[in-house]
Amino acid sequence: ILPQQYLIMFDHKELELVLCGVTEIDVVDWKQFTATSTTLGPGGAHAMQMDWFWEVLAELTFRDRAKLLQFATGSTRVPVQGFKGLTSYDGLLCPFSVKAIPYRRGILPRAHACFNRIDLPLYPTKDLMEQGLLALVHLEMSDFTMV
Predict the structure, then answer these.
(1) Domain residues for 34?
(2) What CATH code is carried by the domain that includes residue 54?
(3) Which of helix, strand or coil describes residue 97?
(4) Where is the HECT domain positioned along the sequence (predicted)?
(5) What is the pLDDT of residues 81-110, one digit of tens each?
């Protein structure tokens, strides 16, 4: 894929970093480069749910955070540039985004990994949101479904 003259510029660790991204997931960076639906944004009717989302995310273990990232984007790693460097299926820049959806008992968040998006139910409590997000990361994800 790459001509050999470009490959010799990197050692094996640098090449892995460029191709695969970084393993460290910075929640502050993730939050900074996230687009939200209007109601979830600052001052929005459901801004509290977005605050809960970031609080729960910050409390997750590194491994669970990576699983949630994989659920939402298809990758457990962050681009070298951080979350501002996320791309969609076509290679174009595509920020992580969260869209509010109505809450129904037992509903879990949905992902649109090609577009780096989570549809987040408007959970009535932080505990219910945490349970929903933890249920996702503890599922063994090996396939995807079309709904």
Answers:
(1) 22-138
(2) 3.30.2410.10
(3) strand
(4) 1-147
(5) 889 988 888 889 999 999 999 999 999 999
Tokens of 40: 């979830």
Residue 147 covered by a domain: no
Q: Which of 107, 19, 99, 96 is nearest to 65 (CA)?
A: 96
Residue 5 resides in a domain: no
**Catalytic residue among 58, 114, 135, 139, which?**
114
pTM for this predicted structure = 0.82
Q: Name the strand (E) or helix (H) holding 124.
A: none
Indicate the number of domains in the chain: 1
Task: Tell me, yes or no, if 94 is annotated catalytic.
Answer: no
Residues in the chain: 147
DSSP 2: -
